[in-house]
Design brief:
Elements: H1 3-23, H2 32-38, H3 41-62, H4 68-87
Pathway: Protein modification; protein glycosylation
Keywords: Endoplasmic reticulum, Glycosyltransferase, Membrane, Signal, Transferase, Transmembrane, Transmembrane helix
Protein name: Dolichol-phosphate mannosyltransferase subunit 3
Length: 92
């Protein structure tokens, strides 16, 4: 099962439980305070997921390691390619 399928199954399950609780399909009489929290719960979860994603991206950018050896190797390959193309008559 792919990660996308896992996420879709989890969202479908949570959505079904949320819909059943908010629409009263289970026959439960929830207190007013629970119903007030239950209605905007998907929006809270969406905002929480967005904050988590933003924090994860920020952390990965902040802790990104440079590969100086690979950068030097790539620069030398670029110089070799330019020299080869210059020998073949291409100007930059």
């Amino acid at each position: 099962m792919t990660k996308l399928a896992q996420w879709l199954w989890a969202l479908a399950l949570l959505g079904s439980v949320w819909a059943a609780l908010t629409m009263g399909a289970l026959g439960l009489e929830l207190p007013l305070s629970c119903r007030e929290v239950l209605w905007p719960l998907p929006a809270y979860l969406l905002v929480s997921a967005g904050c988590y994603a933003l924090g994860t991206v920020g952390y990965r950018v902040a802790t990104f390691h440079d590969c100086e050896d690979a950068a030097r190797e790539l620069q030398s390959q670029i110089q070799e390619a330019r020299a080869d193309l210059a020998r073949r008559g291409m100007r930059f």
